Amino acid sequence: MFQAGARGLLIDQNGHPIYFGLHVNSVFDDFLAGNNLKTVNGLIFAPADLQFSKGSVELKSAWQVVDDQNPPKNYITTKATVPKLKLQNGLVVVDTDTATVTVALLSLHVVFVLDGHPEFIWSTFEHVDSAGAPDLAPSARANPSLPPSEVVSTKGFTLYKAGTTVGDGILHW
How many other C-beta atoms lie within 10 A of the C-beta of residue 120? Predict the structure, then answer.
């Protein structure tokens, strides 16, 4: 449920965290272990010239908790056991308790290394509406600096309410 790296949370309009699944194949897992990349310090101090192993694969999925009795018909859904969250010393932490919920697949990232390419090739698949348009959140027109009072989109999305202003879309700590 925490975003890779920053450990940030994405919360949906119902106050539920979006849960993420991260899977790697044995080639990539061996690369991570062999180069001490399974720790924060290992990642921070990784050599700049380190090249990923050919055949490495990573899959990352994003899942939204949905109504058990009325799951959305146009999503891939499944039952999942997920960790509960709690507030501890002002921080959101994973509780030892779990819940079984119905989740809907929002997106899937497929990342792999091809022969002759030291970088990862990245493909993203995300849910679309019946017209084939992405429906998770509005797409930015650019990387603009918008005033806090400007409405981002008048259309509602799965993870974004219609009429949300730029200022209301920013998490304030």
Answer: 14
